[in-house]
Amino acid sequence: MTTTQNSAETHVAHPPFRASETLGAHLQQLLVDLxxxxxxGKQAHWNVVGKNFRDLxxxx
Length: 60
Hints:
By secondary structure, this protein is mainly α. The protein is built from 3 helices and no strands.
C-alpha cells in the first residue's frame, strides 16, 4: 500500500494530558483493589483440594 499524502499534514496536535488528583486517587484505589484480587486468586489457586482438583487448579 502506497500513500501519496504526508501523514504529518493531517496530524492534529493536542495539548498534553494532565490527570486530575481525583482521577489519580481513583486509579490508585483501582490498582490496590486489582492487586488484592490477584493475591486472593493466587491464594485460592494453591489451596484447591478434592476430587476435581486438577480441573479447578487449571481454571484458577
